[in-house]
Amino acid sequence: MSAVTARGNVASASHPLDPLSKDELESLISALRRDGVLDHRHLIAMLQVEEPPKSVLARFRSNQNSEDVEKIERAARVTVLDRSTGKVAEIVVTIAGHVVSNKVIEGAKAPVLSVESEMAISAAKRDARVIEALHARGVTDIDSVRMEAWPIGAQIPKHLDDGRRIIWTPMWHQPTPEANFYAHPISGLHAIIDIDSGEVLAVENDQQIAIPQTPGPYRQSQTGADVELKPFEIRQPEGVSFSFDGYKANWERWSFRIGFCQREGLVIHDVWFDDGGQLRKIAHRMSIAELVIPYGDPSQGAYRKNAFDTGEFGLGNYTNSLTLGCDCLGEIVYFDVAVANPDGTVREIKNAICTHEEDFGILWKHVDIDGNVEVRRGRRFVVSSIVTINNYEYGYFWYFYQDGSIEFEAKLTGIVLTLADNPGADHVSATELEPGLWAPYHQHILCARLDLDIDSGADEIVGVRNSVVEVDSFAHEMGPKNIHGGAYEISETILKRELDAKRVVDPFKSRFWKVINPNRKNHMGKPVGYKLISGHTTYPLAKPESTIGRRAGFMYQHLWVTKNENNERYPAGDYPFQHAGGAGLPQWTQANRDIENTDVVLWHVFGTNHIPRAEDWPVMPVERTGFHLKPSGFFARSPAIDVAPSAKPCH
Ligand code: CO
Description:
Helices cover 10% and strands 39% of the residues. By secondary structure, it is mainly beta. It folds into three domains: 9-104, Roll (Nuclear Transport Factor 2, Chain: A), CATH 3.10.450.40; 114-223, Nuclear Transport Factor 2, Chain: A, CATH 3.10.450.40; 242-415 and 442-610 and 619-642, Copper amine oxidase, catalytic domain (Beta-galactosidase, Chain A, domain 5).
């Protein structure tokens, strides 16, 4: 097996964008406690790096090597829930413990915190109504019941809608300790719980259907899985072609920084490409800013399943520890991350971020008429992490290629959510996987926040100037402009204001979007740019006037462009938990700001429509969705030409 380097906490975490280390988290939390800012009433809802503005970072970068280095004090933003008042506050604090600001966010509701879920589930398990309803279904051992704590969305029963924070609990039966409990949903029984007080507010017990009994084993110890192939090893006998300086990655002509956020998980910062000795910037910050899963089944509480895995749970909390040779194959460099628990303790997640190189088939090839063969093998650099949120796994994979392109791919796997209905029932919004076991239709909708800075160079200090262009291909009607009928052209439209920049994909026009720097021209006098190419995607089926439609209004466009604002980070708003809707992108863009020749952020919405297949059971093979950023007139010619052959002359 290949060597592995565990980076652990990088010794001198000194860059302002570096993930918060365990030591830093512990020291700033203890300082807040010491100074009485935090006490027994408080729970930590989120703790993130406080990222300095771009102009400050640019000054930091340009001064880093000089004598009068302008040090930026590392800082964090701590989102705190005061349990005595239910109010949420955001505290900006330096690592040394100096409080910069402390502000109550009126109307904000904290995301679901792990301690609250645990408390709510044990309250439900103690509730006499729940116990009796389980008995009626033949379940007498309460320890064999698995409950999940789900945000209720905005679908709160009228009599409980007085502003409290509420979760509800779908349940499954686990007949043996290692059984796949998702095979045995308990229909129509949910507890609704106030997570601030721990009170079980209501028990819904409205549809008693037999618990499906067909097991869904997937562990090797249960299935005896024995389809084997011969060993496949990846060796890099002369070592890897990448290096790290702290969290800064250098590979091929690329450099960028790895970041991590308790809310978003993996983040990529400060992406540059070395173009023949000239460093050119491409992106400032790239992340998946929201992930929402609207379910399309109106039955049994399934209509409430609309979780915002990023904004309501804090996706980074659920990051896996990865295993060499299993999650990642080859010569791996891992990074550990640390997250603050609600009670202020700190949890380290070992091997949370995986970095390595992958062979990626041929990069390019041509056989000339004289028989000369030029072929290059391609390689890509991969940065990835995987989270487990209840039943599902999400892998976030960022790929850097030798042709100057960047790709993001989400890998969706895990177990489909299940409910019970009568075998063979006329149940129109779900697939029957086994007799009486149904998997509701749903969508996984992701929103990437792409703060691209195309060839911004020294402009960063004074202000980046980019524009976004929509490019459609079209054909004129048969006639003077299209004599043979086969002609087609492109139309390029600059998106000038935010309301003009709410766009959807159009495969009939092979639509793509290009971020250009109108102030930097390539060798042909055209503005340099990168194009955003959407991949396999979907469009929301939920009606815009539905509660999920209002709360996740960002879903209804595949592209939004906003003027860059440091505090506009999350497309459904900062606090989607039980929010009535309208926050985030739909709200910000009402200002209709000018987005031409300025510092812009692209928001790309993409995802999958999941009509569960029999073959998605018991664990779904990986489904992929993502997008590609490709240079478009950024370079004078293909940067892949500069890649040397990897082997002796090829014939
Ligand atoms: Co799915």
